[in-house]
């Protein structure tokens, strides 16, 4: 086998693994042009999350918060899944159980072809009326029509994302815990791992004996817990790991 940069322990795990979890954050979408939250040009550098990603901010500044989500929806709709998203989707061809647990709300894993996805923080393409709960998905982005929109019943329409102080979707979270708890390998990709309770998921995997691989451009709060941290862009590293998988799987066939 040609020289590889990955540790033998990871390669051995890839030979026997069946259940793989990818726990992803905003960093995996950075190469698609979707801004992260806390990096050098992160969203929160300019605006405080408390001012935007929470329900009271929405009630206080409905038009501003709505416009912020319209701005992000526009970016996300123009974005394409990058080689990192695509590599994760291709893992499904080599392992029987691949689960994506994402904190992202940008739909890019689904558009890349991943089938089993748990969105812990919701999805920016879904919206609902806060009074009658009617769904308003895939809203049009009309540059000339500024400001929040109202439901037929008169209620305010909000994005179906989890704001600070709000509970995560319980079923998604429980399924994510279950998959993390039975994973052989858990990849932690493009997340600062500071937002809870989502950030508990990799620890659930760790406590269950999973092999943790971090992929990030810099060390994070999680790095000291990972069995192996690979510092590089997800769009480059994940395809490299996938090509190792292909080598392993093809040599197994011979
Ligand atoms: C809640 C909204 C219960 C959607 C977001 C302990 C337990 C429970 C709660 C808490 C707790 N401690 C604190 C809390 C409160 C709070 C919290 O975690 N605060 C933190 C910030 C201190 N948690 C909550 O409020 C949660 N709810 O607890 O409810 C409850 C209920 C009632 C009363 C009390 C409690 C809700 C949290 C969800 C908040 N919603 N977003 C949206 O608009 O998007 S958070 C926001 O941060 C996004 O969702 C994002 O997904 C999430 C995490 O950020 P990351 O994805 O990690 O992104 P980040 O920019 O930070 O990092 C990017 C990383 O990528 C970096 O490391 C960078 O180096 C790397 N990178 C960059 N480029 C690349 C790359 N890596 C690889 N390749 C590259 N090319
Ligand atoms: Zn309504």
Which characteristics define this entry?
254 residues, alpha/beta, Rossmann fold, SIR2/SIRT2 'Small Domain', 2 domains, 6-stranded parallel beta sheet, two-stranded antiparallel ribbon, 8 strands, 37% helix, 17% strand, binds ligand BV8, binds zinc ion
Architecture overview:
- By secondary structure, the protein is of the alpha/beta class.
- It folds into two domains: 1-34 and 82-121 and 168-254, Rossmann fold (3-Layer(aba) Sandwich), CATH 3.40.50.1220; 38-78 and 126-161, SIR2/SIRT2 'Small Domain' (2-Layer Sandwich).
- The chain is built from ten helices and eight strands.
- Strands 3-2-1-6-7-8 form a six-stranded parallel β-sheet, with helices on both faces. A two-stranded antiparallel sheet has the order 4-5.
- Helix 7 (108-112) links the parallel strand 2 and strand 3 (117-119).
- It is elongated and about 65 Å long.
């Amino acid at each position: 086998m040609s020289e590889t940069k990955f540790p033998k322990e990871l390669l051995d795990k890839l030979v026997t693994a069946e259940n793989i979890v990818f726990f992803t954050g905003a960093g995996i979408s950075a190469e698609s042009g979707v801004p992260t939250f806390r990096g050098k040009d992160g969203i929160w550098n300019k605006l405080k999350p408390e001012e935007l990603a929470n329900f009271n901010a929405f009630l206080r500044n409905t038009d501003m918060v709505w416009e912020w989500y319209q701005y992000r929806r526009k970016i996300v709709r123009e974005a394409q899944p990058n080689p990192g998203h695509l590599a994760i989707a291709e893992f499904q061809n080599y392992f029987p159980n691949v689960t994506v647990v994402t904190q992202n709300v940008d739909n890019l894993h689904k558009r890349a072809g991943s089938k089993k996805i748990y969105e812990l923080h919701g999805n920016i393409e879904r919206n609902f009326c806060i009074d009658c709960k009617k769904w308003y998905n895939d809203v049009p982005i009309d540059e000339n029509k500024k400001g929040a929109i109202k439901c037929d019943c008169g209620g305010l329409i909000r994005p179906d994302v989890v704001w600070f102080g709000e509970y995560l979707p319980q079923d998604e979270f429980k399924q994510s815990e279950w998959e993390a708890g039975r994973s052989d390998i858990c990849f932690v990709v493009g997340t600062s791992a500071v937002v809870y309770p989502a950030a508990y998921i990799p620890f659930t995997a760790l406590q269950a004996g999973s092999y943790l691989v971090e992929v990030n451009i810099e060390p994070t709060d999680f790095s000291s817990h990972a069995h192996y941290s690979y510092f590089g862009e997800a769009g480059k590293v994940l395809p490299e790991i996938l090509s190792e998988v292909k080598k392993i799987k093809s040599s197994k066939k011979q």
